[in-house]
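Bit of a strange request maybe. I'm writing a small parser for structure token strings and I need a real example to test against, not something I typed by hand. Could someone generate the tokens for this chain?
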Amino acid sequence: MVHSLTILFLFFVVFPVLPTSAEGIPTLTVSVEERAPSMVARGAQRVPAIILTLTASCDAPVTVTTLHVSHGGQGAIADIMSVAAYRQGVRLSASRPLDAEDGDVQLALKSLVIPPCGREEVMVGVSISPDAVSAGEHRFILDPDDGVTAPGALVEIGTTIPSQTSVAPVAEGVVSVEYLRLLHPVRYGKEQGVARIKISADVIEDQALQTITFTNVGSARDGHLQKLTLRTGRGQVLAGPVATLDGKKVTFRLAEPLLIEKGENRVLTVTADVLASAKRTIRLVVEEREDILAVPVRGRLRGAARNL
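Reply from user aminoacidic:
Good idea to test on real output. This should exercise your parser:
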């Protein structure tokens, strides 16, 4: 009897009951870059407010759906026209105003999937009202509790440090877009003109166009348009070709900024190989003003900008 009890005891020692494991649930680690205080002009766009580094564990892809940003400081909420998220200069969310009462904003992200062991940098940028009060101080912070939503993943947010931006007593120039009629009907085939716009600088200062994103509000998408190229009205290539639409968007990054002198304008066209059937529709637009990155021309940038 003693011998059998000894065997039973050894049985439990050699074959323990294993605990339930939580392994396999992906983790998203969020770090926030510490930023020095900055001063920006009234009317400035895409002002960096928060820069995030999102790192996924190696278990599975992580889909990030929402960012929650809060506003503080002595500056009025009305000084901030809109807030949006960007990745590599391309807008990831619709531009949204701050809540008039608490200054918060929820940014719903489009197609931000981080692969296993992957890393993405996302910028939260703000646009300042042309009527913003000078010397207004604005602070932006990622909510430490629910700043990032990633369904099915464990989100770990590091130290969140508010950024500080003040409004300078000067105005920044802006550019505007006017849509022009295409010179020829769009047909199936190579190098079809699919968009034609006039981009103008106001009378405040010269502007250098660096990036512009078009969105197709028609039904064509992805490979329906290929070899998209941004050109001047005279046909000179400014950017591209871009292989295909990315969903319904295409972003052109100019290797050399295009100079638009104050009070002047430039005609730009987009050409593409059209592989869509007649049932597909094409109408490329600049969906939001934040989809144009044009910066004031000062110092060395003036020499780098092309005056075509």
